[in-house]
Amino acid sequence: MLQSSLEGGSMTEQPSAPDESGTDTSGVLRDDFGSSAFAAPEGAAEDESGDAADGGQLLPLPPDPALEPRPPSGVGLCLSGGGYRAMLFHLGSLLRLNEAGWLPKLTHVASVSGGSITAGVLGQRWNDLDFVGGVATNLRDVVIDPILEFAGRTVDVPAVLLGVWTGNVAGRVAGAYDRHLFGGATLQDLPSDGPRFTILATDLSNGVSTQFSRASISNYKSTDAYKGYTVKKPTTRLADAVAASSAFPPFFTPFKLDLPSGRRVLLTDGGVYDNLGLEPVLKNVGTIFVSDGGGPFGITAKPPTDWLFGTVRVLLTIQSKVGDLRRLQVVKALVKKQRAGSFWAVDTDPAGLTRLASTLPVSRADATALALSPTRLAHFAPELRHRLANWGYAVADACLRAYVDPNLPEPAGFPLPDGVGDVR
After folding, report:
1. Per-residue pLDDT tens digits for 177-188
2. What is the rounded CA–CA span in Å between residue 362 and residue 349?
3. Number of domains in the chain
4. How many CA atoms lie within 13 A of 407 on its CB side?
């Protein structure tokens, strides 16, 4: 079996070692454009192609004319999909961004799928945060701990077993979100004075994103066959928006959204169109942070061939390629300095992090194990919850100190128990 890798802008083939099941695990962690790339600090050297010389092996990346000029202000945060794995990884990102004073500077937060669970809780409880000196002193109590507790619940299997006969699996997922996290909150409970929170789903009729926010539910694409739509000041439940965003096919799709006009639209997972949540943010801010908790694509010599799991494999293949294109999109903006900020991912190779804190030890084996955590809405053991959040914290810290604020002090240690695995 051969594993493709990016070297100097060209595709090369390297032998890889499958495990006994036939699944390749040697290429799980990435240090090319797909793992971690950043806006280089002012004064950083560039090679002849204009790419940052210390940015790893990158494709030749022309500037994106759609992003010129850089907006003068605005700070965006994008939280990717990836089930509970992403939901928990993003907690670490929030913790480190908060300590670094970036949380109250946010003007836009966009999310898809598992990232929308984290973003939804943050948005609903934004006004409960106590900011002192630019740091939310109660972030753990208000946002982090409730999500850690929620990760101990299994949502997906009961929703499928109970909802498959009525065609309302996604509705049961929404019910679980509402009972355990949102308590009847609607989109109007997102902050009016604070970041604009946008939760993304994908419309099955026209194939583009439907955006849920406090201001509106909107879908911009209209044709003769299908008209886009805008609902101003929607009172849709926050749990419904998050469930639509995380309606991963084929099990949780479609999410049936009834508009006030009486029209019903069918939605699927936001990651089908944009697994990083870039669309509402990248063109509207000068600084962008992207936390990617999407798992690596599993290379296998024996892909499933049955109808159900074969279909899932096809969907995962498509989503993987969509994710790579979105990663490249944000990397272009960062490397070409069209945007400031940083990008980090759960499948980052810690060996490639030049500013990985000595107080936050992470081995490649532990990072690999965390990246391979299942993409499920199912019970995660407490240790795994803590380790995913700690890994998100460590990689966010390394990226912030390397490419955003070189003077940011190393943290004293991991914010949660259990480190990231066997390394202490």
Report:
1. 999 999 999 999
2. 10
3. 1
4. 0
What are the distances in angstroms from CA 114 to CA 14, 120, 235, 293, 329? 33, 10, 22, 9, 21
> For residue 395, what is the domain's CATH number?
3.40.1090
Question: CA-CA distance, 372 to 28, in Å (whole number)?
Answer: 8
Q: What are the tens digits of pLDDT across the range 144-176?
A: 999 999 999 999 888 888 877 777 888 899 999
Round to whole Å and give the CA distance between 374 and 359.
27
| Per-residue b or e along 24-49, where b marks 16 or more CB atoms closer than 10 Å to that residue's CB | bbebbbbbbbbbbbbbbeeeeeeeee
Residue listed under structure tokens 């419309």: 203
Catalytic (active-site) positions: 113, 269
Give dist(CA 114, CA 121) in Å, integer: 12
Q: With respect to residue 10, please indicate whether it lies within any of the assigned structural domains.
A: no
Residue 328 domain flag: yes
Question: How many whole angstroms separate alpha carbon 296 and alpha carbon 298?
Answer: 6
Instruction: Provide the whole-model pTM.
Output: 0.84
Single-letter amino acid code for the residue at 69:
P
CB atoms within 10 A of CB 293: 35
Residue 383 three-state SS = helix
Report the distance separating Cα 154 and Cα 150, nearest Å.
9
Q: Which of 72, 111, 378 is nearest to 252 (CA)?
A: 378
Tell me the HSE value of 119 on the side-chain side, using a 13 A CA sphere.
36
* Residue 139 belongs to domain spanning: 75-404
> Does some domain include residue 20?
no
In a domain, 413, yes or no: no
